[in-house]
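Please check this chain.
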Amino acid sequence: MRIFGFIVAALAQVALFFAPAAAEPVKIRVTWVAIVTNMPSILFLKPGIARHNGKSYEFESLHFNSTPLMIPALATGDIEVATFAYSSLAAAIQKAGMDDIRVIADELQDGVPGYYSDEYMVKKDSPIRTIEDLKGKVLASSGIGGAMDVPMREMLKKHGLDPLKDVTIVEVSMPNHRAALADGKVDLISSPLPFSEDPDLRQTARTLFTQRDAAGATQMILWAARAGFLEKNRAAMVDFLEDTIHARRWWEDPANHAEAVKLVSEMTKQSADHYDPWLFTKGDYYRDPDDLPNIQALQQNVDELVAQGLLPGHIDMAAHADLSLVKEAAARVNSGK
């Protein structure tokens, strides 16, 4: 019996030696620009909400100053998931030659009825009352051809103004828009969340029009990854998207509003009063509960880039989307598994 026991133990050691090592969690680095407004900045701030994190995948959020800066990072493999604006996505596909980029999930949508839409603002005491009054004025853009620049130009064209001849458009970094307007350096600024909720801005400025007025529904920000990474790490990505859906629904559940505001307030060191009126309410952007982007709106947004001469040619956005992963993840969540 001793010999038999010794043989069993020896065989067990041999089996252990030749057994494949446990797979390391897949690193998933996801970008963000605007803290709180971009979900990756706060995604798993609520403890215990990400069941698969640290097991099948390892999540890391990375701050970028703008979405165009994500293009080279995705190209070199320094990030796995980019939270692109629709304009940066189009540039990555057509100008940077990354034809293998795939849209995989929603981040936020502008112009959805009943929800917040980005604002284009002038001083309260400004004589500008109509779009036509902008003729000869100086307009601030956070980036020529960017996701808020395009609707501004679209609105000008709708009212018979040529963006190249009838106004002067200057680039101003988004955090400096309020100061540029207050100092009289520009006559109109674009203001997304959370900048538009600045009390000082609200005291001195008023909304001339919204992005919804200019462009209707916009697939403003979306998640994108490269096809090769998705194919290689499909199981981990589905686990990750499952966790993001759980997180998204937790943040947007009215029953969790007070706790959500408290968590964000503690992280950003800003007063809860700053977030309480709008954060994850109808005063915020629309975010699809199943993480599904609006591909039809995305196509219209990219087509407008072409119409304005900001993109060389047509891109079939449906061909650059792989929603099978997020649909699988949503099916898990909706089935309660």
Summary: Confidence is low (pLDDT under 50) at residues 4-12, 14-20. The two ends are 47 Å apart (CA to CA).
